[in-house]
């Protein structure tokens, strides 16, 4: 009987891969789940296990070939008797399995969950349990940190956490294995025996490959190194047995200028007594992403900021008049953010350039408003998006802002909740900021900065009066938004807030 070896699912939006390395050759005996070959996509490396025990009869897709999902890679001829060499490991594995069954537990893999669209890796931030701990089903085992959100990994079943395979600080790919656990109340000893037998079987191919220098690198990696003029010792391999993959070459190339940067501008010498009192902490992935995106925004967009000020008297009076009734009916407090959101939606209809984005040589106009509301969290700044905010009432907006804000502070936001924004509001006033220039959130073309409300003397109808004033700042991409449009937008926001009735009359 022949069993086909096919390309597994490669992940969302990934349709093809390159055959990087075959660990077995035709005629080799293989065990169930033993690694046969390694595939390389533009995002991750995928290992293909054997679907059955037997003999690798032929290889259909050779190293270096590009294959699609479910394409045929090779064939395995199943055999009832694989020979003396296979008998011993199978017996050991059978005994280990019997021991597991006697203990009432089976080995379960703890895997990295789906991290969200376009997110392919995460860093293991914290293990909440240690090896040998008893856990309940769905009890949190560890926390992963991506460049956008934190992801909690629950236990897939009740049992005992066995071996932790990815320690804190390690980077793991989507779908990678984090740990092993034993279900039920089984003891850890049989599980370790099973791990030992499986581990030996898994590493058998590597044992026959000799020293590290004999490891065959991925064909695509060899080509990339040749094109870049890199030698093998300049690249750190992350593949099986230190094998260099295409991604490793890309990382080496991107790291080269970064390594040279400190030489061009070295850090000033620090006195020994000061150095002893310093603390060096690695930036979180979220903070690294924030830093990179903000710098990219400055480098890419022709960013400019225009300012105005708004008299908050009418909004504050309206809020004070209806806040109790509003909260009683809708179950949420009436804040200023819903007024500013409504005012921005009103202005975006008149100046659609601020709600558009550049795509190559095209301008994409959005006939909807997905409002990003910047929120500060202990981990850093995040921007949850309220979709179709132009169709929502004051109450709906306040409820959405409250719910998104709480999820942001708790680190519970999903990737989908932070994607697709067309315009952003940032409220630095909650921290006491009097005036600032917000940075664009690419690919958006505009962001409104709110600030502290401060009583100031103002000339009103020839008389000096004390009014609650707020400075507003609109940062915009001058490549698509002209100065006239930016100023008009900010003036419309000011008019709507100084006379909220204009929002009701659509004026």
From TrEMBL:
<protein>
    <recommendedName>
        <fullName>Dihydrolipoyllysine-residue succinyltransferase component of 2-oxoglutarate dehydrogenase complex</fullName>
        <ecNumber>2.3.1.61</ecNumber>
    </recommendedName>
</protein>
<dbReference type="Pfam" id="PF00198">
    <property type="entry name" value="2-oxoacid_dh"/>
</dbReference>
<feature type="region of interest" description="Disordered">
    <location>
        <begin position="257"/>
        <end position="277"/>
    </location>
</feature>
<dbReference type="InterPro" id="IPR004167">
    <property type="entry name" value="PSBD"/>
</dbReference>
<comment type="pathway">
    <text>Amino-acid degradation; L-lysine degradation via saccharopine pathway; glutaryl-CoA from L-lysine: step 6/6.</text>
</comment>
<dbReference type="GO" id="GO:0033512">
    <property type="term" value="P:L-lysine catabolic process to acetyl-CoA via saccharopine"/>
</dbReference>
<feature type="compositionally biased region" description="Basic and acidic residues">
    <location>
        <begin position="85"/>
        <end position="98"/>
    </location>
</feature>
<dbReference type="GO" id="GO:0006099">
    <property type="term" value="P:tricarboxylic acid cycle"/>
</dbReference>
<comment type="similarity">
    <text>Belongs to the 2-oxoacid dehydrogenase family.</text>
</comment>
<dbReference type="Pfam" id="PF02817">
    <property type="entry name" value="E3_binding"/>
</dbReference>
<feature type="domain" description="Lipoyl-binding">
    <location>
        <begin position="107"/>
        <end position="182"/>
    </location>
</feature>
<dbReference type="InterPro" id="IPR000089">
    <property type="entry name" value="Biotin_lipoyl"/>
</dbReference>
<keyword id="KW-0450">Lipoyl</keyword>
<dbReference type="InterPro" id="IPR006255">
    <property type="entry name" value="SucB"/>
</dbReference>
<dbReference type="InterPro" id="IPR001078">
    <property type="entry name" value="2-oxoacid_DH_actylTfrase"/>
</dbReference>
<dbReference type="GO" id="GO:0004149">
    <property type="term" value="F:dihydrolipoyllysine-residue succinyltransferase activity"/>
</dbReference>
<keyword id="KW-0816">Tricarboxylic acid cycle</keyword>
<feature type="domain" description="Peripheral subunit-binding (PSBD)">
    <location>
        <begin position="216"/>
        <end position="253"/>
    </location>
</feature>
<dbReference type="InterPro" id="IPR023213">
    <property type="entry name" value="CAT-like_dom_sf"/>
</dbReference>
<comment type="subunit">
    <text>Forms a 24-polypeptide structural core with octahedral symmetry. Part of the 2-oxoglutarate dehydrogenase (OGDH) complex composed of E1 (2-oxoglutarate dehydrogenase), E2 (dihydrolipoamide succinyltransferase) and E3 (dihydrolipoamide dehydrogenase); the complex contains multiple copies of the three enzymatic components (E1, E2 and E3).</text>
</comment>
<dbReference type="GO" id="GO:0045252">
    <property type="term" value="C:oxoglutarate dehydrogenase complex"/>
</dbReference>
<feature type="region of interest" description="Disordered">
    <location>
        <begin position="182"/>
        <end position="242"/>
    </location>
</feature>
<feature type="region of interest" description="Disordered">
    <location>
        <begin position="75"/>
        <end position="100"/>
    </location>
</feature>
<feature type="compositionally biased region" description="Low complexity">
    <location>
        <begin position="257"/>
        <end position="273"/>
    </location>
</feature>
<keyword id="KW-0012">Acyltransferase</keyword>
<dbReference type="InterPro" id="IPR036625">
    <property type="entry name" value="E3-bd_dom_sf"/>
</dbReference>
<dbReference type="InterPro" id="IPR011053">
    <property type="entry name" value="Single_hybrid_motif"/>
</dbReference>
<comment type="function">
    <text>E2 component of the 2-oxoglutarate dehydrogenase (OGDH) complex which catalyzes the second step in the conversion of 2-oxoglutarate to succinyl-CoA and CO(2).</text>
</comment>
<dbReference type="Pfam" id="PF00364">
    <property type="entry name" value="Biotin_lipoyl"/>
</dbReference>
<keyword id="KW-0808">Transferase</keyword>
<dbReference type="GO" id="GO:0005829">
    <property type="term" value="C:cytosol"/>
</dbReference>
<feature type="domain" description="Lipoyl-binding">
    <location>
        <begin position="2"/>
        <end position="77"/>
    </location>
</feature>
<dbReference type="InterPro" id="IPR050537">
    <property type="entry name" value="2-oxoacid_dehydrogenase"/>
</dbReference>
């Amino acid at each position: 009987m022949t069993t086909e070896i096919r390309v597994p699912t490669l992940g969302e939006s990934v349709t093809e891969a390159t055959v990087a390395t075959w660990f077995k050759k035709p005629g080799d005996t293989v065990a169930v789940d033993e690694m046969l070959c390694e595939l390389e996509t533009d995002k991750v490396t995928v290992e293909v296990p054997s679907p059955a025990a037997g003999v690798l009869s032929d290889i259909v897709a050779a190293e270096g070939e590009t294959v699609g999902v479910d394409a045929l890679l090779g064939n395995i001829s199943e055999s009832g008797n694989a020979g003396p060499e296979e008998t011993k490991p199978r017996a050991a594995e059978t005994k280990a399995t019997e021991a597991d069954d006697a203990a009432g537990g089976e080995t379960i893999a703890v895997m990295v969950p789906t991290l969200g669209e376009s997110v392919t890796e995460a860093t293991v931030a914290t293990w909440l349990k240690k090896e040998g701990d008893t856990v309940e089903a769905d009890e949190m085992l560890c926390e992963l940190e991506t460049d956008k959100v934190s992801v909690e990994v629950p236990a897939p079943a009740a049992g005992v956490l066995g071996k932790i395979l990815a320690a804190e600080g390690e980077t793991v790919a989507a779908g990678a294995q984090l740990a092993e656990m034993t279900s039920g109340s089984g003891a850890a000893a049989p599980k370790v025996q099973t791990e030992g037998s499986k581990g030996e079987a898994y590493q058998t191919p590597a044992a026959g490959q000799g020293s590290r220098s004999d490891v065959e690198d991925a064909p695509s990696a060899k080509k990339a190194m040749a094109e870049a003029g890199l030698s093998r010792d300049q690249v750190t391999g992350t593949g099986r047995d230190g094998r260099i993959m295409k991604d490793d070459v890309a990382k080496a190339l991107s790291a080269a200028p970064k390594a040279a940067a400190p030489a061009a501008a070295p850090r000033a010498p620090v006195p020994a007594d000061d150095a002893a009192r310093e603390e060096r902490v690695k930036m979180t992935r979220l903070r690294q992403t924030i830093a990179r995106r903000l710098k990219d925004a400055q480098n890419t967009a022709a960013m400019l900021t225009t300012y105005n000020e708004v008299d908050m008297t009418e909004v504050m009076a309206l809020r004070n008049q209806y806040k109790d009734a509003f909260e009683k009916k809708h179950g949420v407090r009436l804040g200023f953010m819903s007024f500013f959101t409504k005012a921005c939606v009103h202005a975006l209809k008149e100046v659609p350039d601020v709600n558009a984005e550049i795509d190559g040589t095209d301008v994409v106009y959005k006939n909807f408003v997905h409002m990003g509301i910047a929120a500060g969290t202990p981990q850093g700044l995040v921007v949850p998006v309220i979709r179709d905010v132009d169709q929502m009432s004051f109450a709906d907006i306040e409820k959405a802002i409250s719910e998104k804000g709480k999820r942001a502070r708790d680190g519970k936001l999903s990737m989908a909740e932070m994607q697709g924004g067309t315009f952003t509001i940032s409220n630095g006033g909650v921290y006491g900021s009097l005036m600032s220039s917000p940075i664009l959130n690419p690919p958006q073309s505009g962001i409104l900065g709110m600030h502290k409300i401060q009583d100031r003397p103002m000339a009103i109808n020839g008389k000096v009066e004390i009014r609650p004033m707020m400075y507003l700042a609109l940062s915009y991409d001058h490549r698509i938004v002209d100065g006239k449009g930016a100023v008009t937008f900010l003036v419309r926001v000011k008019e709507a807030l100084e006379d909220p009735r204009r929002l009701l009359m659509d004026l």
